[in-house]
Write a structure and sequence with these properties.
mainly alpha; Serine Threonine Protein Phosphatase 5, Tetratricopeptide repeat; 61% helix
Length: 312
């Protein structure tokens, strides 16, 4: 929490709200808290804008309380929340928390320019707040500015080189810069920091698919699904890897699982129609997804094959 003169009266934002704001890699149908696109990742850079040039504020006479704005944010009314945080930031220009929350709500509302300006200002007020730099990196990625994103994630890494989230985001940045080997290395470090990081597993598997290493992709994707079977993207990407290795029956199951989670998942629908009922090559060796997931977990944790897996 920021140490400002008014900070003690602004602690109403709960831990759950903070996690929702910063933890994952998704926001309102944009590329996911640090996921890549469901199938093929896509990665004009402009200079960093002046810190307040993109921040829209309301007249100072419209007094806004921080708890009120936070309540609207928790209700996922991001446009309204961004207006309220803009007013708060205008009334409290030395408080970095107001600009940080303005950045988050603007980003989730799809106003990337305003989000950028707010995060830049929050960073000026508190240069050591890692979350500000990470979310500014995400905004740069959504703006199609991976070089700027690299600069901000490097700043975050200098502040905290032990964070798995920093390395996961570095993986996204390197992938956007078309540096797959560097991206894979970053995701592996992220998993060393946190062996339960399902988004790093998903993104790692996705890069392997893009490189045509579909057999290798099965391990991390199977482990991601094993840890969290409720994410449609994980199920879909596992289906892609299975399909590309000729395991059409298992791919069908994965695509159906994705659609059971999200019935409007167009890519999963198309993929299911493509593989359902296709005959497999009987010479293919069978795969056990549970075994592949456990072997990948052993690999990440540095456990020898056949040995016990440490308790989570």
């Amino acid at each position: 929490m920021y140490r400002t003169a008014r900070s003690t009266q602004f602690v109403s934002l709960t831990a759950a709200a903070l996690l929702a704001a910063c933890g994952g890699e998704s926001k309102v149908k944009l590329v996911t808290p640090d996921s890549l696109a469901p199938t093929v990742a896509t990665a004009s850079d402009t200079g960093t804008k002046e810190s307040t040039s993109n921040v829209t504020t309301k007249p100072e006479s419209q007094v806004v309380s921080l708890p009120e704005a936070e309540s609207v944010y928790r209700e996922k009314k991001y446009v309204e929340a961004s207006e309220m945080f803009a007013a708060f930031a205008d009334q409290h220009p030395s408080n970095p928390w107001g600009f940080y929350m303005l950045g988050l709500s603007s980003w989730k509302a799809g106003n990337l320019d305003q989000a950028e300006g707010a995060f830049v200002k929050a960073n000026e007020l508190d240069p050591k707040h890692v979350k500000t730099l990470l979310n500014l990196t995400r905004v740069h990625l959504d703006q199609g500015r991976p070089k700027d994103a690299l600069g901000t994630v490097m700043m975050a890494m200098k502040l905290d080189s032990t964070s798995g989230e920093v390395y996961r985001l570095m993986g996204r940045v390197r992938s956007s810069l078309n540096e797959p080997n560097e991206a894979i290395a970053a995701y592996r470090v992220a998993l060393l920091r946190d062996p339960m990081d399902v988004w790093s597993m998903n993104n790692l598997g996705l890069i392997m698919i893009q490189q045509g290493k579909n057999e290798e992709a099965l391990g991390p994707l199977a482990r991601a699904v094993q840890l969290d079977s409720t994410v449609a993207v994980f199920q879909n990407n596992l289906g892609i890897a299975l399909e590309h290795t000729g395991r059409f029956a298992l791919a069908t199951e994965a695509y159906k699982a994705a659609l059971a989670i999200d019935g409007g998942y167009t890519k999963a629908k198309l993929s299911l129609g493509r593989v359902e009922g296709r005959k497999e090559d009987l010479s293919l060796p069978p795969v056990e997804l549970v075994t592949l997931a456990e072997n990948f977990d052993r690999e990440i944790r540095g456990v020898q094959m056949g040995g016990p897996i440490p308790k989570n």
